[in-house]
Amino acid sequence: MTTVATLGSHCALQVLKGAKIEGLKTLLVCEKKREKLYKRFAFIDEIFLVDSFSEILDQKCVSFLEKNNSILIPHGTLIAQMSSKQIESIKTPIFGNKWILRWEADRTLKEKLMRAADFDLPKTIPSPKDIHNLVIAKRHGAAGGKGYFLATSEKEYKKKRDNLIKQGLIKVDEDLYLQEYISGVLAYLQFFYSPLKEEIEFFGVDKRHESDIEGLARIPSPQQMDMTNNPSFNVIANSPLVLRESLLTEVYSIGERFVKASKELVSPGMNGPFCIEGVYDADGNFKTFEFSARIVAGTNIFMEGSPYTSLLYDEPMSMGRRISREIKEADSKNQLDKVVT
Ligand code: AMP
Question: How far apart are CA 245 and CA 316, in angstroms?
Fold first, then answer.
């Protein structure tokens, strides 16, 4: 029997619960410090304990996963804690396209793919000298928004940059990426593309609660003016959104353009779950600033399905469950090679 395996963090509970509902065996690679948490959940069949997630590359772990006939579900923790080279060298079959994860982690590749998908992107600011309007400075990789800051001038940028250097979060200017700040409604669009059905499914949309930028709106402006610390964009939680129905045509088009571009640029394309992240501006246009080429933690809201999955399925369908459904279907048709890399 196929086993669904993942790292103990991010959306592991949703992924493994979904696998169990679909009748598959479940396996968690778990840091010792979190064993107590995950032991609470009866749907986890096997726990492989490690000191750090990089042990997934070690022979002992590889053999255990192999013995269990595992397929590894990648999520944000894998991207955050391992280099693209390490991820690509994982011997266990990975659900989706492991090669596209490099395109998620590298800003230049990321922008190339988003342009190929014909997304409307916020402007990139080439150098701090070019800061004349509100910009957001972001760290590379899946930093989860920690250490990001806003600036309206080169002077302000330098002050905040020096602060980050002091905190040890960055070393040089090149560790930061500058982008036009877009004001509007942030939305994280969750999709699943099935290479078996060659069809895209819109799974749901969430917003992120980021600390401590979100707390700023509760502080009156005179006190804000006196504040010296940099608010950050550290994701703490997610909550659900539903979109105006008139926006859905464009939502599907965004997902389909992304799948098409990824097929052209990074074979075998964007299979499985992904998320397109951006801001609806005052005219309802979606400006995309990011994508995640794997399941996002925002799907955890919809463990019992979302308003959009209830339109597609007559049963509660989480993203985790949808992954296992695809694995089962591929397995029954002898086409597992279509859904893993
Ligand atoms: P990211 O790492 O690109 O997902 O960004 C983390 C957070 O920064 C997002 O969830 C947004 O709150 C914010 N953000 C990123 N880019 C922009 C942008 N261009 N305009 C406005 N907010 C942004």
Answer: 21
Q: How far away, in angstroms, is 289 Cα from ligand 1 center?
A: 7
Q: Decide if pLDDT at 141 tops 70.
A: no
Residue 312 in contact with ligand 1 by CB distance below 6 A: no
Taking the centre of ligand 1 as the mean of its atom positions, its distance from the CA of residue 248, in whole angstroms, is 22
Over residues 164-192, the pLDDT tens digits come to 899 888 999 988 999 999 999 999 999 99
User: Is the beta carbon of 208 within 6 A of some atom in ligand 1?
Assistant: yes
Q: pLDDT value at position 167?
A: 87
Distance between CA atoms of residues 90 and 62, nearest Å = 8
Closest approach atom of ligand 1 to CA 181: 20
pLDDT, position 143: 64
Distance 44 CA to ligand 1 centre (A): 34
Residue 54 token pair: 């990089």
Contact 28, 65 (CB under 8 A): no
Per-residue 3-state assignment (H helix, E strand, C coil) for 75-95: CHHHHHHCCHHHHHCCCCCEE
Question: Residue 1: is its pLDDT beyond 90?
Answer: no
On whether the pTM is more than 0.90, the answer is: yes
Tokens of 125: 């600011």
Nearest CA among 328, 215, 269 for reference residue 103: 269
